[in-house]
Write a structure and sequence with these properties.
By secondary structure, the chain is mainly β. Helices cover 0% and strands 44% of the residues. The protein has one domain (5-44, 54-271): Peptidase G1 (Jelly Rolls, Sandwich), CATH 2.60.120.
Length: 278
C-alpha cells in the first residue's frame, strides 16, 4: 500500500482501484474514461516467433518497447526524460486502444518492484475521442492518478523517478507547455527496489491484442543518475533496446509492433507494425 505526501500545484488523488490479475492489466487506475491500468514488469519473449524489423535487435517483449539500462548491482538513483503527448489514432472499430509512456527504476532484471511515473494515452474507434491520464506507481502496489494535471496533444512532459531508499521514492511530472508540476513521495511495504534498471518505455498495459498508433514517442534529455552521482544517457550506457511482439488477429500470426532506437540522450519508440498497419 502507498504512504504518500503530495507536493503539487494541484490536488492529488489519494485512492486507486485495482484488479490484481496479469490478464487484466488495465487494473489499478480507474480513470474518468472508465478504463483501468496497472503496469507490469517486462515480459520478455525468449523464443520470438518472428524476425524483427530492426537492423539491430536485442530483446523482444509482449508489453514493453524502449530502452533499458541494466547493471549487475544497485546502481541507479533516478531516471528522467521529456516526451510529447502523442496524437493517437486507431483503425479498430470495436474497442478503445491504450498505451502508456513512462520512466522508471527496475522491472527488468529486478522484476519485483518498479518505481515509475508517466501518462496513459487512449483513442476510441471514432478517432476523435482521445483521453490522457497522468499517474504514478510503485509496483506491485497499484497505480494512482495525479489529478489537476492537464494533458493535451503536443504538450511537453518531463517525467522523473527518484529513489530515496529501496522502499521509498519521489515521482514527478512537469507539463512544460502548461507550466504545471505534480510530485509525490511514495513508500512501499510490499517490495524493495534493486536499483539495477533505469528505463524509458512505451507499454502495452491492456489485454487488447492491438495497439493504438502513437506515431513516435521520443524521450529527449533522457538520463539516469548513479549512486556515485554520475549521469548516464541511454546511448552512453549501452542501453538494451526492446520492442513489442504481439499476435496480430488481422494476419493470424505474430508481428513486431514497434521500432525502438537510442541515440545519445534520445530514445525513440515508433509504432511500426512489421506486417503493415495504417
Amino acid at each position: 500500500m502507498f504512504s504518500a505526501s503530495f507536493l503539487v500545484q494541484a490536488l492529488l488523488a489519494t485512492a486507486a482501484f485495482a484488479i490484481p490479475s496479469n490478464k487484466e492489466r488495465m487494473a489499478s487506475r480507474r480513470a474518468r474514461r472508465g478504463l483501468t491500468h496497472q503496469s507490469q514488469p517486462v515480459n520478455l519473449i525468449t523464443s520470438p516467433k518472428v524476425t524483427t524489423n530492426l537492423a539491430v535487435q536485442e530483446q523482444l517483449s509482449s508489453n514493453w518497447a524502449g530502452a533499458i539500462l541494466v547493471a549487475d548491482t544497485a546502481t541507479y538513483t533516478s531516471v528522467t526524460g521529456t516526451f510529447t503527448v502523442p496524437n493517437v489514432k486507431t483503425d479498430n472499430d470495436n474497442v478503445m486502444e491504450c498505451a502508456a509512456a513512462w520512466v522508471g527504476i527496475d522491472g527488468d532484471t529486478c522484476g519485483g518492484a518498479i518505481l515509475q511515473t508517466g501518462i496513459d494515452f487512449c483513442v476510441a474507434s471514432d478517432e476523435t475521442t482521445q483521453s490522457f491520464d497522468a499517474w504514478y506507481e510503485f509496483f506491485p502496489d497499484f497505480a494512482v492518478d495525479f489529478t489537476g494535471f492537464p494533458l493535451s496533444v503536443g504538450d511537453s512532459i518531463t517525467a522523473t523517478a527518484t529513489v530515496l531508499t529501496p522502499t521509498s521514492g519521489t515521482l514527478t511530472l512537469i507539463n512544460n507547455s502548461q507550466k504545471v508540476t505534480v510530485s509525490v513521495n511514495v513508500t512501499s511495504t510490499s517490495a524493495s527496489l534493486c536499483q539495477e534498471n533505469a528505463e524509458w518505455i512505451v507499454e502495452d498495459y491492456t489485454s487488447n491484442p492491438e495497439l493504438p498508433n502513437w506515431g513516435t514517442v521520443t524521450f529527449t534529455d533522457a538520463s539516469a543518475t548513479t549512486l556515485s552521482g554520475t549521469q548516464v544517457t541511454p546511448g552512453g550506457g549501452d542501453a538494451t533496446i526492446i520492442d513489442i511482439e504481439l499476435f496480430s488477429p488481422d494476419f493470424a500470426e505474430n508481428e513486431v509492433m514497434t521500432i525502438s532506437s537510442v541515440d545519445g540522450s534520445t530514445v525513440a519508440i515508433k509504432y511500426s507494425p512489421a506486417l503493415g498497419g495504417f
